[in-house]
Automatic annotation (TrEMBL):
Molecular function terms, GO-annotated: transferase activity
One family name in Pfam for this protein: UbiA
Function: Involved in the synthesis of phylloquinone (vitamin K1). Catalyzes the transfer of a prenyl chain to 2-carboxy-1,4-naphthoquinone.
UniProt keyword annotation of Cytoplasm present: no
Record-linked InterPro entries: DHNA_phytyltransferase_MenA, UbiA_prenyltransferase, UBIAD1
Protein's name according to its UniProt entry: 2-carboxy-1,4-naphthoquinone phytyltransferase
Lineage, highest ranks first: Bacteria, Bacillati, Cyanobacteriota, Cyanophyceae, Synechococcales
Localization of this protein: Cell inner membrane; Membrane
Top-level taxon of origin: Bacteria
Catalysed reactions, semicolon-separated: 2-carboxy-1,4-naphthoquinone + phytyl diphosphate + H(+) = demethylphylloquinone + CO2 + diphosphate
Organism of origin: Cyanobium gracile UHCC 0139
Length: 329
């Protein structure tokens, strides 16, 4: 049984006000899932690391505004996801930590989601005003991809198409927006920096996409029963688990190739600090892919890989020239 399920059953069975309060606390923590916000902050942290490594200036206030806006936009995506999944019924029994299930207030959750979207976009508009209007267009594209993933009438995630959308949003689109946002006004006049965004964002976005892919394993039965044909439902848990090492290898290969080509400093290999959780994830899903109660944490192992790998790469890119200068002394 997953932690939220354990909490839900304890809660249902009664057991005193104190234990009820702590159970609800745990459900709320599972609903907020703060570690997930690592995926939202990564594109701009990578862009910051890349600019520092290139000896280009960094606009701290733009970085902070972008970070806050990205967190609000991911909060919108997750709250709206709970609302849309409540409408299809897929979360009704399998997700006691859905904010809609916890509060019983679908409309208020939707209002809160929309509030996060409006404030997040307003902050992005401010960032765009101080850099390039294209920033806002790219972020609107990210939000559009997020809506296509889960909102009616599209619900492309229900057809197993969520992973490419996720890669596009957190990879080229968000990274290009972040690169433009951190550049001095006027520097972005040359259009969207697709080349730099693809080079920098492709590997880390694959790690983010792995988080989404792993989030489907433990709920494969509920998803199938509600017509949600996630990649894991389509492939079966065994074949899907077999893809996990390839995700990890491809994410790392896309970061190591620029080092081998001499485009990035050796220190960019620091992204390898994500390897221990990746190995644990590969082993866990390889052995237990068919046991939902044992693999409920697989999404968070993937998240640890994504966070350590992305932070390692961002720091490695930023520190490269410093360490080269130190070594040359
Ligand atoms: C909401 C997402 C996954 C949850 O999916 P699922 O319904 O399977 O989960 P539960 O079973 O737990 O309910 C993630 C979807 C990601 C989406 C394709 C792209 C989102 C883009 C963001 C809105 C953009 C963020 C801003 C940017 C500047 C970083
Ligand atoms: O709740 C989840 O499972 C996810 C939420 C989320 O915002 C996200 C974003 C990017 C990749 C994966 C995920 C999730 O899995």
């Amino acid at each position: 049984m997953s932690e939220p399920q354990v909490v839900a059953s304890r809660y249902a069975a009664g057991g005193g006000a104190a234990s009820e309060a702590s159970s609800r606390g745990r459900l709320w923590r599972a609903a907020v899932k703060w570690p997930m916000y690592a995926v939202a902050v990564m594109p701009v942290l990578l862009a910051a690391g890349w600019r520092l490594g290139q000896g280009l200036g960094l606009r701290l206030e733009q970085l902070l505004l972008f970070l806050l806006a990205a967190v609000l936009l991911l909060a919108w995506e997750n709250l709206a996801n709970d609302v849309f999944d409540a409408d299809t019924g897929v979360d009704t029994h399998g997700k006691p930590h859905s904010v809609v299930n916890l509060t019983g207030r679908r409309d208020r959750v939707l209002a809160l989601a929309n509030g996060c979207l409006v404030v997040g976009l307003a902050l992005m508009a401010l960032v765009a005003l101080r850099s390039s209007a294209v920033v806002l267009l790219l972020v609107l594209l990210c939000c559009g991809l997020g809506y296509l993933y889960q909102g009616p009438p599209f619900r492309l995630g229900y057809r197993g198409l969520g992973e490419p959308l996720c890669w596009l949003a957190f990879g080229p689109c968000a990274t290009a927006a972040a690169l433009l946002a951190l550049a001095p006004a006027g520097e972005g006049a040359g259009g969207v920096p697709w080349g730099a965004a693809l080079l920098l964002g492709s590997g880390p976005a694959l790690a983010t996409t792995l988080v989404l892919f792993c989030s489907h394993f433990h709920q494969v039965e509920e998803d199938a029963a509600h017509g949600k044909r996630s990649p894991v439902v389509r492939l079966g848990t065994q074949r899907a688990a077999g893809l996990v090492p390839w995700f990890v290898a491809a994410a790392l290969a896309l970061q190591w190739a620029p080092v081998l080509l001499g485009w990035w400093p050796l220190t960019a290999l620091l992204g390898a600090i994500g390897l221990p959780p990746a190995r644990a994830l590969i082993r866990l899903l390889g052995e237990e892919h068919h046991q939902p109660e044992r693999i409920v944490g697989s999404k968070f192992l993937a998240l640890r890989f994504q966070a350590f790998n992305g932070l390692g790469l961002a720091c490695g890119l930023a520190l490269g020239p410093w360490l080269t200068a130190l070594a040359g002394r």
